[in-house]
Amino acid sequence: MNLETIAVGPARRTVYYYRRGHGQPLLYLHHMLGIVGFEPLLAKLAESFDVIAPYAPGWGPAKDQLEDIDPGALDITLHNVDLLNALGVKSAHVMGISIGAWMGAELAAIAPQRVLSLTLVNPLGLWLDGVECADPFAQHPGMPSEIQFSERGLRKSLLLEGRDKMDAHVEELLNLRASAKFLWPIPDTGISRRLGRIEAPTLIATSEKDPIVPAAHGVAWRDAIAGSRLTTIAQAGHLAGLEQPEACAALASDFVRDHAMSAVA
Length: 265
Known about the structure:
CATH topology: Rossmann fold
Number of domains: 1
Number of helices: 8
Strand order of the largest sheet: 1-2-4-3-5-6-7-8
Oligomer: single chain
CATH superfamily: Alpha/Beta hydrolase fold, catalytic domain
Number of strands: 8
């Protein structure tokens, strides 16, 4: 699956993205490590949706665009609106994982007319006093993202295998650098003040083995978004889309189908 490019917004910023599938559009917003090629999760989602999966500015092939975006919510949200406009997509289902879940929630809060439904997997952006969370940026530089996986060895098999080891490691560090712009030193983005604005049907999922977004965060997100649902992904760490692609794809497709059936009933 080849990357496509499109120029968006007044600055004509280049967006690198994958697009595949049929049906209603689904905007996929990636985790802290970007997109690891056309991931199995994207292939599964494409069985039910017209999947649009962009690299955010600062990640992957867009690594040199990090300075184009302010660290708050507005710039990245406007960027995603510009992308939908450039693609001629009036509204889409949105699925985000990790930092991408935060981006998706901001889009739903700031531009609610663009979001048909919202699936948030291990969402970052809240800070809960008294809830212990692992720091994704305070890790060994030789294995900087290992904590995001549920088991040792999965970083190698799911992130590095089949790639030039040095190139993959450098990209890993650059992607974490991009994530840190929005989340370091404390991953409180201020989104708690905007979650009550979300109107889209929302599903929140936390992973059974995620030390970065523990289960208490899922409860907090559910309580802040009216009418939202909460579920758990078994046998997965923070990067649930890499570890459990079929389960994650089913979350979004089943949620959209169930909501559509409820709306008709």
